[in-house]
Every structure is written in C-alpha cells, then in structure tokens.
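Shift notes (night). Ran SDR family oxidoreductase while the centrifuge was going.
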Amino acid sequence: MSQRMSLAGRTVLITGAARGIGAELARQAADAGARVALLGLEPDRLAALADELGSGHSWAECDVTDQAAMVAAVQSTLATHGAIDVVVANAGIANHGTVAMSPPEAVAKVIEVNLLGVVRTVTSTLPAVTASRGHYLLISSAAAFTILPGMTPYAASKAGVEQFANGLRLEVAHKGVTVGSAHPIWITTDMTRDLKQDLGTFRENQRRLPGPLGTEVSVEDCAAALLDGIARRARKVFVPKSLAVVSALRTLILGPLFERVMLAQARTMVPQFEAEVAASGRFFGEHSTAKI
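Came back to this:
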C-alpha cells in the first residue's frame, strides 16, 4: 500500500510503553492525533505517561509473556477505544553475560520476552487488527543480521522476530493487514545506558564497530523513524536508514570470513566481558524489568 496512513483518530497499542522507545513513540503518536493504549510492567510510569499525553489515552499493566494478561489488556483496550488499528510489539530485554556463565533462566527469559512476547502480542490482537485492516510493527533489531559475543540470546530472539514478521506478512496480506519489522541499532535508552555503564568491554566494542553498526541514535529520532514507517506501512524500518546496506550484506557479515575476525577478537574480549559481568553481580541491567 503506497498511500500513507493517517494516525489521526486511530488506536495504536504499544507494548513496553513505560520507558525508552515505547514511551517516546507513544508521545509522538499522540502528537499525530492517535489514541494510544500503553501496555507495560511499570504501572506508575504508565499512569504518569498517560496523564502526560492527556485525555483519550489508556494504560494497562501487562506482562507480554502471559497470554491471559495480554488477552485481558486487549479486551480492555477494545472496550475503551472500540478498535485497534496499529500494534507496536516493542517489549524487549537484553541480558548481560555469555551463555556459558548465565543462569539458564536468564537466557530463556530473553527469548521469552523478546520473541514469545511478540507472538503473544500478535495472537491476542490479530482479530481486532484484522477487523480494522490495520498494521503491525514488530521491533526486531540490527542484531537480527549481526552478532556480538555476549548478546547471543538477544540476537537469536531478534532474528526470530524478523522471521516471524516475514511469515506473518504473507499470511495476513489478503485480509488487508500489513506487517513490518523494525531494526534499530544502539538507541539512547536505559537498556543501552545500562550496558555502557556496567561493561567497559561493551563500550570498547561499540567504538570499534564499523559504519552504522557503531552509531548511537537518540530515542526521539528512533521513534520518529518508526512512526514514519507505520504511516507508510513499511515492511522494513532501519534506524539509521544506512543499516539497510548492512542487512543486504548479512550473508557476508555472518559468513566464515567475518567470523574469523570476530573469533580472533573474542579470545581476549570474552574473558574480559565475563569478568565484568561477574563483578557487576547481575545478569540484567539496573533498569531492566527482568527479575532473575
């Protein structure tokens, strides 16, 4: 669909809306005239944001890994707003630590929130979005087509989100529903700040990454790019746009030549990274909602 979709008067449901990308996207969507349904795990922050946005918006405490909670939140949204036109599956977390040193529950939690949370968000909203011939934006990441040691569960989950979006797009197109996946790089959110604060190895790796892979984008610019992607019903949104080239070259990036370079760096980097995580005494950032 080439015609832009106006958000004025439409209902936009956003998961992970209490902070970061989700909260800023809610602000910009509301400024564009949308009615925003905020879902997340931090009721005080959600209530404050809804109050900031003004009348006509709603919030619900909801764990995206809990199907019953998702269904209840969706029903509440429909009762309040009458429809759901756009769903942004944004809830996500990142763990600190390699697979070898992390508790299995921490590794599984990342997959559960980032991938299964998207699945539960989509399945619980699909009847409503189908009825409105609406749009999904599933938040993947540049990690879907790149990899860094220490971010294995995160990268795996985000690659899964991209493929879920690709398949879902084909399944619902004949019903007038469109599906996009978004691929941001490092955004100035609490998750990125926690990584930089806790892990000197992360800061050094980010500095060494070539081209757009090392770019840090403001949360405001990221939300603006996502909002534009929603309006265009875009199938892919890259933040920054130059990541489209990196995505096109993923076969090379994930191939044996690049891996050889990474293996050489990993010999010294991984032990340092593991030591820093152990010293921090936690496997998720200070602001993460994950409790392990």
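The two ends are 43 Å apart (CA to CA). The longest strand covers residues 178-184.
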